[in-house]
Specification:
EC 2.3.1.181, acyltransferase, globular, lipoyl(octanoyl) transferase activity, disordered C terminus, transferase, BPL_LPL_catalytic, nine-stranded mixed β-sheet, about 220 residues
């Protein structure tokens, strides 16, 4: 079995959200294979199903006035940040009722990506995501509708970590965030991380990737 990979580059959150829904319907109807969307977003705050707004440090209007979009969405989890330099992945895969297993597979794939850079990362029982030491490197939050997933993961590659300071990320008080750039002490090529993520997903999910080239070619 194969999965399709679409590299969408830098895409506003609202456009990506609508495109996810379109792809999701096509996967549900069997009109396309399982699909992994890879992209970056301009600065945006998203709040998942567990969010009440208490982990926003300012009124919603403040964020919009200071260059952040804000969206309440149907994924799991609380509040998080997306921005340039962060690899966002939306695996739109059939998962049936095995949602917990699916979350663990995403975590396993991200751990493999991080290990390819000589770093040891781990998931934390009870919280979806991947950590290095006491700092969160990758946030994970999915939704499942008609037994097919959407939303996904956000891996900090060269992310401006200062932007996390305007929220309590994932509602976890007293916890830090980190990035591959901070851990390695250098900028990390985003296309390289995307390629390693595709390979890790192929290994973990036991499927062959087929990369849709048109978006990738536009970035080179």
């Amino acid at each position: 079995m194969e999965f399709l990979v679409e590299d969408l580059g830098l895409l506003p959150y609202s456009q990506a959200w609508e495109y996810q829904k379109k792809v999701h319907k096509e996967v549900v109807r069997g009109e396309r294979p399982p699909t992994l969307l890879l992209l970056e977003h301009p600065r945006v705050i998203t709040l998942g199903r567990k969010a009440t707004g208490e982990n926003l440090l300012f009124p919603e209007s403040w964020y919009r006035e200071n260059g952040f979009e804000v969206y309440w969405v149907e994924r799991g989890g609380d509040v998080t940040y997306h921005g340039p330099g962060q690899l966002v992945g939306y695996p739109i895969f059939p998962v049936g009722r095995e949602v917990r297993r699916f979350l663990r597979q995403i975590e396993e794939a991200i751990v493999k990506v991080v290990a390819s850079y000589g770093l040891k990362a781990y998931p934390t029982p009870g919280y979806a995501g991947v950590w290095v030491g006491e700092d969160k490197l990758c946030a994970i939050g999915v939704a499942v509708k008609e037994e097919v997933s959407f939303h996904g993961f956000a891996l900090n590659v060269n992310t401006d970590l200062n932007d996390f300071s305007v929220i309590i990320p994932c509602g976890l008080k007293g916890k830090g965030v980190t990035s591959l750039e901070r851990l390695l002490g250098r900028k990390v090529p985003m296309l390289e991380v995307k390629d390693r993520a595709v390979q890790a997903f192929a290994e973990v999910f036991g499927m062959e990737p087929r990369v849709k080239e048109d978006h990738r070619e536009a970035q080179v």
